[in-house]
Amino acid sequence: QVQLVESGGGLVQPGGSLRLSCTASGTIFSASAMDWYRQAPGKERELVARITTGGIRRYVDSVRGRFTISRDNAKKTVYLQMNSLNVEDTAVYYCRLDYIGLREYWGQGTQVTVSS
After folding, report:
1. Is the pLDDT of residue 101 over 90?
2. CA 35 to chain CA centroid, nearest Å
3. pLDDT tier at 1, thresholds 50, 70, 90
4. N or C end of the chain: which has fewer CB within 10 A?
């Protein structure tokens, strides 16, 4: 069983930055792709960023150039550095662990609010 614990959310002004962290328990982190999703009120959950076991990164168009996903396998942690935040980035952010397409685990979510 894997547990994912997210942290780093909060309230930030437009143009500001936040860094989200997601730390996993268990032993399969390094063998797993890691995703960050978000869900805004009244909207479907969307994939924001993904990093594979080999470090390949993918981003949704709306955050490319502003967000950076990274991972530290020794700490079993994935990060999402978010810069130039705008009100449209307001959402609950979730991390997801994808173990070779066989198993998935989700964190509990962390709220990010961008407001002046």
Report:
1. no
2. 6
3. confident
4. N
Residue 73 to residue 81: CA distance in whole angstroms = 17
Mean pLDDT of the chain: 97
Specify the DSSP class assigned to residue 31.
G
Nearest partner of 85 among 48, 58, 35, judged by Cα: 48
In whole angstroms, what is the distance from residue 36 CA to residue 109 CA?
A: 10
CA 13 vs CA 7, 9, 24, 112: distances in Å = 18, 13, 29, 11
Q: Report d(CA 69, CA 59) in Å as an integer.
A: 9
- As given in the structure block, the two tokens for residue 89 are 């980035």
